[in-house]
Amino acid sequence: MPKKKSPTVARVLSLIMAYVTLCVAGGIAASVLLMPAVFAANKATQALVPSLQVEGIDFDVTSLPQKSIMYASDGTTKMGEFYEDNRIVVPIKNVSKYMRWAVVAREDKRFFDHAGVDVQGVMRAFVKTYVLKQDEQGGSSLTQQYVKNVLITKAESDNDPIARYHASEGTVARKIREMLIAVQMEQKYSKLEILQGYLNIAQFGRNRLYGVETAARRYFNVSAKDLNIVQSATIAAITKNPEKFDPSVEANLPTAQKQRNTVLQLMYEQGYITKAECTQAQKTPIQDTLNIQPLTTGCQNAGDYAFFCAYVTQRILNSSEFGKTKEARLQLLKEGGLSIVTTLDVDANSLLMKAARDTVPPTDPSGFEIMMASVKPGTGEVLGFGINRTYTGGDATDQTQTSMNYMVDAEDGGGAGFPVGSTIKPFNMVAWMEAGRSINENLQTTTSYATSEFACENYNGKMQNYSGTTELWPVTNALTNGTVNPESPFLGLVRSHNTTQASMGAIIGLCRVADAYTQAGYHDASSLKTIDQVPATYNPAMMIGSVNVSPLTMANMYATLAADGVECTPIAMKKVTRMNGEEISVPKANCHQAIDKEIVQTVAYALNQGTIRSDGAGQYAKLDSGRKTFAKTGTNETMYMATGGFIPKQIATFVLVGDAQAPIQNPVANIAINGTYRGYWDGGTIAAPAWKEFMDAYADKKGLGKDVGNDYGTPVAKYTTSSGSVTTIQGRTLGTYSNTSNSNNGTTNSNGTTGNNSSSNSTGGNSTQSNQSGQSNQSGQSNGQSSTQSNSGTSSQQGTSNQQSSNSQQSGTTNSGQ
């Protein structure tokens, strides 16, 4: 093996002595001028000259990477921390005198006397290492250590492994470079500024724990300004070997105490503390002084805030306001020292989580997820999420855990969306009135529609996006397997009848319906496209909820109805501030008038009627204390149950229940949920009670009396006036009708027919009061819900899927209950 080449001891000694002499006697100017002559003494050291350049290195302590902290909307409730290096920078004035003394005593007792390089320390280290051949000695001043840490931090920030190596390599070259920069540092900064920099950059523990403030909070749950003698000595001792001297590790305690006592002795010897103080401190068992706080990074330890925390994190990573690339945004989040104030309402989030767990406990044998989201109308502010799961890495064997945020879109950590059943129907009524129609027109309905009848007319200069085929779409009302003919759009919404929705779509065309959804805030959870942007997804079944949409998007659509038609893009952040106080622009809600106020008021009227009429499908959502209720229930097949609604101008909430992983394999029929067995579960019997529990609790918590929103939902005459004649669709062959009663809405007469079925049997939302007792619904119906067949390849929903991409519809079949 060839002998390692290195400068002789004499040459190295002469170089160091010459350099140190110049530093001390002539200052940096002389040393820089004579450096070439000094290095010329040995060709082997001439290569060091380029490494002495320090341009571009920022030694300002405020530029150090710092952890970002996320807060709820109150600006004080901490939700999560994000860091590559766990560091909180503080000014020297916020560090106790004992901590300053402990570090100086341990690391550099002549710190306040030398000019950046401790000549005595260098000579001692040189002699012991190179002359006496003893263990390698450092001899670095505290200033030099600060320089080394800054160079390492910059190299890591720049992702430069070569610079990282040169900043920490055990060579004479590195030492000389540090000396030169240290002397330059002393010319520019005061001793206290350098000490401040060191205290903020030094590593004081395992797991990338940096800075004295973070260490004080980690080990003692105090601020750095409050550290006492014992605590200061404990922290100062760690830097020599953060892995072995970290006192949070039980096995390290004996060594950590020994090292602490060494620091205490040095503090006494250097006159910082008295003999009595030293003796008393050394006798104190280290374990009696500790108050270890958990290390938290990211959202996994955020408890009930975790899902919202994860949503905000994804919004930062997906928003150009925080950087040009996702990598740059992540670096800003982990190193930028951001203060992130979110829109999360602590009360709302807490009550949402409680309602979710109360309705379907995490360990419920059904295995169903319940997913809830709330939005503040007119602002776009997302107030919170509710789910009966814990946000973790996702243990596949533990149904109580998940790493997927089911409440949001795929790009924000959610899935491909859910079909939402009849909760989409209020927006069909929006489209109906936007086409200039009255909600009290009596429509001919049937149980079979040609898909071509839903073709889009040319309106507003738009091209046709849907033409349909000649194939038939069989559609019936839930529970009755029939239709009500004739029936008005008003009663069709109150009773949640599918056949009336189909008739409305056949008259005005699907393009108008798609536009209404888009105006209210709809977009596909997977593609993020609005429904009018994807003509291939048009099919009549979308009018009864066969769509791919997240609970948050549905909550936002209902928020549009709660804000007089003002639609906003959901936002998760109110304010983001850099560590220097500079604000970063956050994504905007872009609120705008999307739907005419008179239309919204008329829809709200119909929603309210659906919760108070005897034939209303939304009775189980009726709020307590006489509060006026605006809500709509829905059921998709035997897979998902939903409810959406709002308190005007205050809050809009959407609830979805089902097996998000395997909805087809695990249907919501003939099953017990939370100890109650039903042959048929629907939005009224499971989702509505959860919605009601939360909304009542939220209204009570916020002091929203029964008069709040009481004047909302006044129908407008031009949308309720009707001639009473029956509207038909030219050229359509009508199907077979069931016999049901068709009562009017109290404002205009309708051409009713009588039959042998009561109106409550045709609602589907809450068919009989026996639903309350846990018994199965209609006699003779195994699942209480009739199939609504779609023609394969034409009207079956394209791409509707659950979170695991399994088909959300049975082959060619859709069904929307109430």
Automatic annotation (TrEMBL):
Region (Disordered): 733-818
GO function terms (MF aspect): peptidoglycan glycosyltransferase activity; serine-type D-Ala-D-Ala carboxypeptidase activity
Domain Glycosyl transferase family: 79-267
Annotated EC: 2.4.1.129
Superkingdom of the source species: Bacteria
Gene3D superfamilies per record: Biosynthetic peptidoglycan transglycosylase-like (1.10.3810.10), DD-peptidase/beta-lactamase superfamily (3.40.710.10)
Catalytic activity: [GlcNAc-(1->4)-Mur2Ac(oyl-L-Ala-gamma-D-Glu-L-Lys-D-Ala-D-Ala)](n)-di-trans,octa-cis-undecaprenyl diphosphate + beta-D-GlcNAc-(1->4)-Mur2Ac(oyl-L-Ala-gamma-D-Glu-L-Lys-D-Ala-D-Ala)-di-trans,octa-cis-undecaprenyl diphosphate = [GlcNAc-(1->4)-Mur2Ac(oyl-L-Ala-gamma-D-Glu-L-Lys-D-Ala-D-Ala)](n+1)-di-trans,octa-cis-undecaprenyl diphosphate + di-trans,octa-cis-undecaprenyl diphosphate + H(+); Preferential cleavage: (Ac)2-L-Lys-D-Ala-|-D-Ala. Also transpeptidation of peptidyl-alanyl moieties that are N-acyl substituents of D-alanine
First-tier enzyme category under EC: transferase
Assigned GO CC terms: outer membrane-bounded periplasmic space
Biological processes, Gene Ontology terms: cell wall organization; peptidoglycan biosynthetic process; proteolysis; regulation of cell shape
InterPro entries registered for this protein in UniProt: Beta-lactam/transpept-like, Glyco_trans_51, Glycosyltr_51/Transpeptidase, Lysozyme-like_dom_sf, PBP_transglycosylase
Keywords: Carboxypeptidase, Cell shape, Cell wall biogenesis/degradation, Glycosyltransferase, Hydrolase, Membrane, Multifunctional enzyme, Peptidoglycan synthesis, Protease, Transferase, Transmembrane, Transmembrane helix
Transmembrane segments: 12-39
Residue ranges, compositional bias (Low complexity): 738-818
Family label: In the N-terminal section; belongs to the glycosyltransferase 51 family. In the C-terminal section; belongs to the transpeptidase family.
Protein name listed in UniProt: Carboxypeptidase
Provenance organism: Bifidobacterium biavatii DSM 23969
